[in-house]
Amino acid sequence: MGKYGYLKMNTDPAATELIASDFKELGHAAKKLANHAIMLGSLGLGTSILKWIAFAAAVYLLILDRTNWRTNMLTALLIPYIFLSLPSLLFNFISGEVGKWIAFIGVILRLFFPRHVPEWGVLPGSLILLIVVAPSLFADTIRNNWIGVAICLGIGCYLLQEHIRASGGFRNSFTKSHGISNTVGIIILLVYPVWALITDIL
């Protein structure tokens, strides 16, 4: 039998240390990536939850007796806020066939039976019409962009300052009739766009 020759591998200690440090850096990078993914996922979830809460607060303020507001202009500003902050699940549902039928019936009632249409149904009917007929620039682009969030923030700030001015000060805005519910509702309207803008910057 022949002799088998074995090759001796010369391992450089410096090369081994470099490879080990590379693997450590890869481990740290993987951990950072996982942490950032979890953080962004939780931020996105927080934005979605706040969007639903803001939508509920806007609907609540819309349902409240309009005599609690100084002008119908203030109540009407809730319509574009709801349009821009409406969660995508509801927006897609209303902008489909269901919303078209509701808008169609609403228009027929307004045309032929105007005395039977309640006063409180005008603004919700306008919201349905707005959702159904909105061009894609508003329905898809601005709604899902920082521009829509900035508009919501502007509406919330304007409503809050008008409510405080009409109440005679920030402290009085909590003491008057429906003051706490109105003030808290408007503050909730501000929380969603502020959070959405912060997470968008991050």
UniProtKB/TrEMBL annotation:
Lineage of the organism: Eukaryota, Viridiplantae, Streptophyta, Embryophyta, Tracheophyta
Protein name in UniProt: Uncharacterized protein
UniProt source species: Catharanthus roseus
